[in-house]
């Protein structure tokens, strides 16, 4: 298990609930070399006096060295936690998803706001449409399989596509990957309406075009 020790005086932001730990706030990282190099591995975060502060996903290649999963010492980071977080995010966005028309895009998971740092999930076309996922941090990338499994189980949507921002992934030291994670890829363009205006949307890239 990795142990991140925070510099004296730098723990104030964590105690206030800040979920990001920058390289400049870290005194040292203890653990096996292979654990330190594993992007998204879980680490215990402690103060300079060895007081427990959090459990976080560690990434040695990112300026945001760690992203907090939990401030609760009694809450392990495991499949159950990931499943709970995804289900809670979907429950929060359920009303908007239910009201959405087939030609609307709905945000289902919103990263840190849903305690899933770096994970963005949108839905188009309801249950028979597509889930579009972006894994913008190493922690959620490491838990990609249970995240996708839970999304499918809870929404009933079988088509899951991974969209990637190359610059964001590069900044996290993650490979640029995109493509279908389950089911079918979305078509090159779908019609979408926002505030009464129609667009053609490429779900794979997020780019919008004038409706043709």
TrEMBL record:
The compartments listed are: Cytoplasm
Record carries keyword rRNA processing:
yes
What Pfam families has UniProt attached to this entry? PUA_3
* Ranges of residues in domain PUA: 2-91
Query: Which CDD domains does the UniProt record give?
Result: PUA_RlmI, RlmI_M_like
Q: Which GO terms describe its biological process?
A: methylation
Name one molecular function that GO assigns to this entry: methyltransferase activity
Keywords, A to Z? Cytoplasm, Methyltransferase, RNA-binding, rRNA processing, S-adenosyl-L-methionine, Transferase
Keyword Transferase (UniProt): yes
Protein name per UniProt: SAM-dependent methyltransferase
Say which species the protein is native to.
Massilia mucilaginosa
